[in-house]
Structure formats: structure tokens, C-alpha cells
Design a protein that fits this description.
Helix content is 55%, strand content 0%. The protein is mostly helical.
Length: 42
């Protein structure tokens, strides 16, 4: 699987008060993408 995979860019949240909100939004989006892939391929 790793040989066929593609590199995932790292996420860098912007500095400031919205940093935590941006990290949470990124993690939720990443989880949704994972769940979608699992539903389609499992």
C-alpha cells in the first residue's frame, strides 16, 4: 500500500487565536476523508 500511495502534505495552522480552531477543522476533515475511503473500500 505504501508504494502506491502519495505523499500527504503536512498541515501548518496559522499563528494567532484561530490556530486551535484551524487544527480542529483540519483534523475533522481528515477524519471524514478517512471514513469516506473506508466506506468505499472496506
Amino acid at each position: 500500500m505504501a508504494k502506491r500511495g502519495k505523499k500527504i502534505d503536512s498541515f501548518k495552522a496559522p499563528d494567532g487565536p484561530a490556530k486551535k480552531v484551524a487544527e480542529i477543522a483540519y483534523q475533522k476533515g481528515d477524519a471524514e476523508r478517512s471514513f469516506t475511503w473506508l466506506r468505499a473500500n472496506a
